[in-house]
Amino acid sequence: MSEEFRQREVQCITPGGLHRMAYREWGDPDKRRVLVCVHGLSRCGRDFDTLAQAMADEYRVVCPDVPGRGLSGWLKNPMEYQVQTYVADMVTLLARLDADCVHWVGTSMGGMIGMALASLADTPLQKLVLNDVGPVLAAVSLKRIGEYIGKAPAFPDFAAAVQYIRAVSAPFGAHSDAEWITLTEHMVRRQPDGSYRMHYDPAIAVPFNATPADKDIELWPYYDAIKCPTLALRGALSDVLKRETFDEMARRGPRAKTVEIAGVGHAPTLMHADQVAIVRDFLLAA
Fold this sequence. Notes:
Number of domains: 1
CATH architecture: 3-Layer(aba) Sandwich
Distance between the termini: 22 Å
Strand content: 15-25%
Strand order of the largest sheet: 1-2-4-3-5-6-11-12
Largest sheet: 8 strands, mixed
Mean pLDDT: 95
Structural class: alpha/beta
CATH superfamily: Alpha/Beta hydrolase fold, catalytic domain
Radius of gyration: 18 Å
Order of helices and strands: EEEHEHEHEEHHHEEHEHEHEH
CATH topology: Rossmann fold
Low-confidence stretches: none
């Protein structure tokens, strides 16, 4: 298992101007196969440290911080915090990597970006893992996420930040105290007064909350256009990926291989050996 990584960034553009997208890169930079791992709405690329280390023997693994999160720049126009922007940024990233053989793991929002990119003609994506996300986003989950996204208070100390992350991320399932610290430490930034704040632009909530939360969001045209082998993971307790949507994903479009993970909601963290093994076996299968 490799523990060596390179911290880099690439410059991207939107109508609002230029911005930086940071990414962490693992493995041999000369490897032809690239594995891109993209995080959820309010998380960052460090979520994939465990998976990246486990896959770095076979891939050049790249884990970006989507703009507005982690070490990446914040967008001047909050309404540009949209999947279309992120897809364009990922195309810029893949051009920087000179990647023509790309496998993709996307958790939640990262899976939406992957679906959109995989649906395009001449896409470089050759395998796709959708982690607790699909072509229907349940309204009940959008309402739940909207209640906390962009609204986190300042925390008086790191322990309070951990307590908050444990509360809002309880659907991640059972994790050790050490794992909750890991899930928190890259998500908060220490302020000059010693307090901690979430390490993302609160304005990412603007377009999210501008979407009506009283109905499901359907993305079947994207999913049905996907041609590459696809693995769909679902937390058995998920309120984002409905069971009926999950089952339908096995029957249409790329006819995803489906695996449900017991005792987890939204979303599996891919930090545990059994979850890593599911992803690794799929990606490396002939």
